[in-house]
Structure formats: C-alpha cells, structure tokens
Design brief:
Blueprint: E1 3-12, E2 17-19, H1 20-23, H2 31-38, E3 42-44, H3 50-65, E4 74-78, H4 89-96, E5 103-107, H5 113-126, E6 132-140, H6 150-153, E7 158-168, E8 173-181, E9 189-192, E10 208-211, H7 213-234, E11 244-247, H8 252-262, H9 273-276, H10 282-293, E12 302-309, E13 313-320, H11 342-356
Parallel strand pairs: 4-5, 4-6, 11-12
Antiparallel strand pairs: 1-7, 2-3, 6-7, 8-13, 9-10, 12-13
Helix pairs in contact: 3-4, 7-8
The structure holds oxa(dethia)-CoA.
Amino acid sequence: MIYAKITGWGKALPPASISNDEMSTIVDTTDEWITTRTGIRARRVSHVSTAELATIASKQALACADVSGEDIDLVLLATCTPSTMVANTASLVQKNIGATGAAACDTNAACSGFLYALQNATAQIQSGMIKKAVVVAAERMTWYINWAKRDSAVLFGDGAGAVVLEASSEPSGLLGTKTGCDTEDRDILHIANYGTDLNKYEAVGPSDLLFEGREIFKRAVTGMSLACDDVMDKAKLNLDDIDALIPHQANLRIIQAIQKKLDIEDEKVIVNIDKYGNTSAATIAIALCEAVEQGMIKPHANIMSAAFGAGLTWAASYIKWGERITPLATSDYTFTPCEQSGLELVQDAVTACKNNS
Ligand code: UT7
C-alpha cells in the first residue's frame, strides 16, 4: 500500500493587520461584539497577491521537506480568491517554486478547499500516478469585502498554508476522509457581483459577501460533527485516540460547539481565529503548520480536521502525522517589505464601498 506522507509544512501570514478597535473606525462595531460573537481579535491584510502568498508558504514547505521544486509532480492550490482565473493561479505558483514538471490546478471548494485538495493529491499518490505534490491553500479574502457592511467586514483575513506530500510505505498522511456538498443551501453563502453570470457591459457595485450567519452556524456544527463521526467510525478511531482537532476557523463559538459534540478536551483543540480571523481555505493549513511549530503535534499524532464553506461544501479528515516534527531546512524567501498599516492598505476600498452604499 502506498501512502501520501506529509513531509513539509509552511505558512505565509502578511505582516499588516487590523485590530478590532481599528475595525470599529471602519464599520459600526465594537471590540466587545466581535470578540464575544466570533472570537476574532485581529485579521491580516495582504499587500501581496494570492499567488505570492501561496508561493511563500509553498517554498517554506518545500524547504521543510528538503524537496526541490523540480521533483514535484503536482501543485494543487485551494483558493476562492485566485490572483487570475485564466491562466489559473496554481500555474504561477508552479513557476515561482520551480516545479516546471508539475501539473498545476486551482481547486475551489471555498473554506473546505484545503481538505478537498489534500484528498485529491493523496488519491493521486496512492494510485501511483504521482510521487510528490504541493498542496497549498491561499486566500486574499479582504479583496471581496464590502467595507460598508459590518456583519461580514469583521470576519475575514488573508493568509496561506502549504504541505508537501511524498509517496511512502509508512501508514501516515491522510488515512480517512469524507467530502460532500449540501447544494440545496448554496444560496445562504455566496459572493454577489462577481462571475460570468453578470452582464459585463453593465456597471455593478463592489463584490459583496452575502450569508445567513445563523443558518450557516447551525449547519456547520451539525455537518462537521457528523462528518468527523463518519471518518472516525471508518478508521475505527475512538475519541481517546484523537490527539488534536483542527477545525475550520470561522467562529470560536462554532469550534466550541463541535468540541462539545465530539467531547474533546480544550488542550487538544487548535484555535488561532483570534489572530487571523477566517482565512477561508487557508485556515486549516495555517493552523496545522502553526500547531506543529508550537509543539502541539507530537510524532505519530492522530489529527482530526473538519471544514465547511460556500457550496455548502464540507469535509472531514483523519491525518496521521509521521515521526518528524522539525523542518529539515528553512527558506529565507519571504514577504517584500510592507510600508503601510492594515488600515492604510484597505483605505481606498473602504472609501469606494462607502461611496457605493
Ligand atoms: O464563512 C462565511 C461566513 N461565516 C459565517 O457565516 C459563520 C457562521 N455564522 C457566524 O459566525 C455568526 O452567525 C456571525 C458571527 C456571522 C453573526 O453572529 P450572530 O450571533 O449570529 O449575530 P446575528 O447575525 O444574529 O446578529 C445579531 C445582532 C444584529 O443586531 P440586532 O438585529 O439584534 O439589533 C446584528 O445587526 O448583531 C448585529 N451585528 C453586529 N453588531 C456589531 C452584526 N454584525 C455586527 C458587528 N458589530 N460587526
């Protein structure tokens, strides 16, 4: 049996951020509301493109695995905020990391995208089609935000996370997975004013993230818990076997509700929504990388992860970590210097949204 072992991990978190107090100078909100309703205290704003975020995270993951870009067979980029649609953004990441022999493809399953892409790349390795892959999730969610609307403006941030997968005989990597899509509800979370359904000769307002928060909340908790149960059942895992839970970071209250349903102790739940907000497909990839860096993932750890997103897509994954929890090498490729604050970076967009509202 061939497995797709995770041998490298990396992340890219842009330096500029917006705190809740700063957010309250843009929309009618308070630090108290955002913190108690969502758990978010700050979010990053990128001064570089989605492709560049993905490149930085991927280069770190490759260095961590001590694998050269030339040896990669597949670059899968999970994103719903691509730098370009045609050519796909993965092709630029492929070029930037020197993976010239690799296939390159974008995957859009919104916030579930990283787990969808991980499943796809793992299956290709397990089937023997390919040997090495980079799976990267990168999002520039702040690009979509309508800064005149407080319900969505406070929730999202930018960032990227990546892993390198390599064919291995050791039972590790993605050992259990279930993905699905609750399409009846696709309207309860969508981006308006975007896509080829629009008449391109008619002016439209700024893109706008529309959602029914309470409805998504309920469905997210139920859907992710059921998906986790299903994956654990098939993998014959008990709750005691789980060493870490890495849920999609959309709302701290959703994370706590899933934790309660699964009955998992606090110290096993990986949470970083306070620092980065909801970075869509990137939340799980960033959290996984950070958890390893912070020593929260031990050798051979059993990790459960679950996500939901627009579609409504959902996914649950059981990942078995390998022996190594330290990088083989590091990459010094990083962000270009950013001279502006988070507030300064979004200022023009804020003015445009307010003029349009
Ligand atoms: O992934 C895509 C989007 N993610 C989600 O939708 C995640 C799932 N949903 C959630 O996380 C939560 O539903 C939200 C955080 C989005 C909203 O929390 P909630 O507890 O469901 O609040 P709500 O939408 O029911 O709104 C409660 C009140 C409303 O005021 P009234 O009508 O009770 O007077 C809102 O207008 O909170 C008000 N409100 C705000 N107040 C201050 C909504 N946004 C804000 C805000 N600051 N930013």
